[in-house]
Write a structure and sequence with these properties.
Blueprint: E1 25-26, E2 29-30, H1 38-45, E3 50-52, H2 59-71, E4 76-78, H3 82-86, E5 96-97, H4 113-120, E6 124-128, H5 133-143, E7 149-154, H6 157-170, E8 176-180, H7 186-196, E9 200-203, H8 210-215, H9 217-237, E10 242-248, H10 257-272, E11 279-285, E12 287-288, H11 295-304, E13 309-311, E14 317-318, E15 320-321, H12 323-336, E16 342-345, E17 351-352, H13 353-363, E18 374-376, H14 392-395, E19 399-401, E20 404-407, H15 417-429, H16 433-443, H17 452-457
Parallel strand pairs: 3-4, 6-7, 6-9, 7-8, 9-10, 10-11, 11-16, 12-15, 13-18
Antiparallel strand pairs: 1-2, 4-5, 14-17, 16-20, 19-20
Length: 462
C-alpha cells in the first residue's frame, strides 16, 4: 500500500491476536489490539475498509470479524489463495471481497482434482439438465478435464444455447454436442446413447421446486422418477461405465412430493446396480447458493426493491454449499464411489434462513428490521423446518473417504416395488393426483405430507 499509493489505500493499523505483537510497530504501522478491540478501533479511527491478510482463516473466525464490520457497514477484503502468492500473481488489485458464501459457517472442501481428471479425460461424457445451475457448472468443470466429447442434454433450448456458447468461447478445441430432448422419452434416450455412446453420465435433470411440485405431483413423478428410470436403463443397456445421480437432502424422511420422487429415483438406481457393468452412484447434498429458484437471488431482488424480505419461518434452517463446491463433490463422488454407493458431504452446521437474510441486508449497507424489514410468511406445503442428510439406518453404514461420507442407501419393499411403479406411472399420466399421492405413500412409507391447516399456521415441525 505504501509503495503503490495509486491504489488509494492507506494502512492505519494492524489487528492481531498474538500477545507478542501487541503495542509494536511494523513498517511504521501500529498493532492496535486484538479482535476483541476491532469495534473500538473502527469507531475511534474512522476505518473505511478491513483487509484480512490470512488466506486460510477459518469460516467461524471470518464470520466473527465480518459481523463487526457489517454492523458498521465496513467492507471486508481478504488476500487470495496461497497459490497466487507463491506464483507472485497477487497484488492489491487481486484482493477478494468477502461475500455471503464466505459467511455461511463452513470452509469449502477442497478435493484432489487428479482423481477426477483420470476418469474423465478422453471420455465421452453426458450431462442431463445441462442448462441448469448444477448442470452448467458440471459442464465447465468437466471441460477442464479434457473429455473426448461432452454431450449437453436439456429440455430448454435457451439455457442449453447459453452454456454451449460459453464453452465454445473458453474451450474452443472441445467437441461439444447439444441435444434438446426429454429424459422421459425412451426413444430419444435410445437414440442418444446408441449414437454417441457416452461412457460417463451425470444425471442432474429434475424438477426441484418444492411448492410447484406440491401443486403438480404428476410432473414430479414423470420427470424425477420415470425420467431417471429411462436414462438409467439406457445407461445400463449401453454399458455406460459410471452413472452419477444428483439427489437431495429432501429425499430423507420426505415431507414433500419433490423429496419423495428423489428418494424413489435413488431406489431405482439401487435396483439397477447389480444388473450389469454400470457403476451407479448417488450424490446427496443440501441447498445450493445462487441456484435458480434459491432464496439468495430472491432476497437480492427484494433488497434492491427496498424490502420487505420474505422468510417463511424465523427458525427454518438449511444446509448450504456453493455451486462450484457442489459440483466438485459430484465429480469426486464419481471418482471414488462404488456401485450402489450413496455419497454425502459433511456440510457443517445448518444455517438459519432469517440470519442469511439479515446478513444480506447488512452487506447491502442497510439495517435489518429498520431500513429493510423481514416478514415471516409461514411454512409452505411440503417444507420442513430442518433437513437431515441421512436416515438412522444409513448412519449405521457411514464411512469417511476423502472428506466425503459414503454409505449404503436405505432400501424399500422390493417385492412390490415394480408393480407399484407401474401403477404410479399410470396415475401420473392420467393426472390422477390423489392416486399419485397415495402411491407415493405406499412406495415410501416415511413420506408424511403435512395437513394444509398445520402448514398455514407455521406450526410444522421437522
Amino acid at each position: 500500500m505504501v509503495n503503490h499509493p495509486e491504489f488509494g489505500y492507506q494502512p492505519i493499523g494492524f489487528i492481531d491476536d498474538h500477545p507478542a505483537k501487541q503495542r509494536v510497530s511494523i513498517h511504521g504501522v501500529d498493532v492496535l489490539g486484538t479482535r476483541r478491540d476491532l469495534l473500538r478501533v473502527i469507531e475511534r479511527l474512522g476505518v473505511e475498509e478491513l483487509m484480512i491478510a490470512i488466506s486460510d482463516l477459518s469460516a467461524s473466525d471470518l464470520r466473527e470479524v465480518a459481523a463487526v464490520c457489517l454492523q458498521k457497514h465496513i467492507p471486508v477484503r481478504r488476500v487470495p489463495g496461497v497459490s497466487l502468492l507463491l506464483d507472485d500473481q497477487a497484488s492489491l488489485q487481486s484482493l477478494e471481497e468477502v461475500d455471503l458464501e464466505n459467511l455461511l459457517g463452513r470452509s469449502e472442501v477442497e478435493l484432489d482434482p487428479e482423481r477426477v481428471i483420470r476418469y474423465l479425460q478422453g471420455r465421452v461424457v453426458l450431462v442431463t439438465g445441462a442448462g441448469g445451475s448444477i448442470g452448467s457448472e458440471l459442464c465447465r468443470q468437466i471441460s477442464r478435464c479434457r473429455p473426448a466429447q461432452l454431450l449437453l442434454l436439456g429440455k430448454g433450448e435457451n439455457s442449453i444455447y447459453q452454456i454451449q456458447h460459453e464453452l465454445a468461447a473458453v474451450f474452443p478445441e472441445q467437441k461439444t454436442i447439444c441435444v434438446i430432448g426429454d429424459i422421459g422419452n425412451p426413444g430419444k434416450m435410445e437414440f442418444l446413447f446408441g449414437t454417441y455412446h457416452p461412457q460417463v453420465v451425470f444425471h442432474t435433470g429434475a424438477h426441484k421446486h418444492v411448492p410447484f411440485m406440491e401443486d403438480c405431483p404428476e410432473e414430479a413423478v414423470l420427470n424425477n422418477v420415470f425420467g431417471t428410470q429411462t436414462v438409467a436403463r439406457a445407461a445400463l443397456k449401453h454399458m455406460v461405465e459410471r452413472f452419477v445421480l444428483i439427489s437431495s437432502d429432501k429425499a430423507v424422511n420426505p415431507s414433500s412430493v419433490m423429496g419423495t420422487t428423489k428418494k424413489i429415483a435413488e431406489l431405482i438406481l439401487q435396483q439397477l446396480a447389480p444388473q450389469g457393468s454400470t457403476q451407479f452412484i448417488t450424490v446427496r447434498f443440501g441447498n445450493v447458493l445462487r441456484s435458480r429458484g434459491s432464496v439468495m437471488p430472491l432476497f437480492e431482488q427484494q433488497i434492491r426493491a427496498g424490502g420487505p424480505v420474505t422468510v417463511t419461518h424465523p427458525e427454518m434452517t438449511r444446509y448450504f454449499m456453493s455451486i462450484p463446491e457442489a459440483v466438485r463433490l459430484v465429480l469426486h463422488s464419481g471418482a471414488i464411489g462404488k456401485n450402489g454407493d450413496l455419497c454425502i458431504l459433511d456440510m457443517g452446521e445448518p444455517v438459519r434462513i432469517a440470519a442469511l437474510a439479515e446478513n444480506m441486508i447488512r452487506m447491502a449497507g442497510k439495517r435489518p428490521y429498520e431500513e429493510i424489514d423481514i416478514v415471516f410468511t409461514g411454512i409452505r406445503a411440503g417444507e420442513k423446518l430442518t433437513e437431515i442428510l441421512f436416515t438412522e439406518a444409513e448412519a449405521r453404514t457411514l464411512q469417511k473417504a476423502d472428506k466425503l461420507l459414503l454409505c449404503r442407501p436405505e432400501g424399500c419393499d422390493w417385492e412390490h416395488f415394480d408393480e407399484r411403479l407401474v401403477r404410479l406411472k399410470q396415475a401420473a399420466e392420467g393426472c390422477l393426483r390423489e392416486e399419485v399421492i397415495g402411491l407415493l405413500k405406499e412406495i415410501i412409507p416415511a413420506y408424511q405430507p403435512f395437513p394444509s391447516d398445520i402448514v398455514a399456521s407455521g406450526l410444522h415441525k421437522a
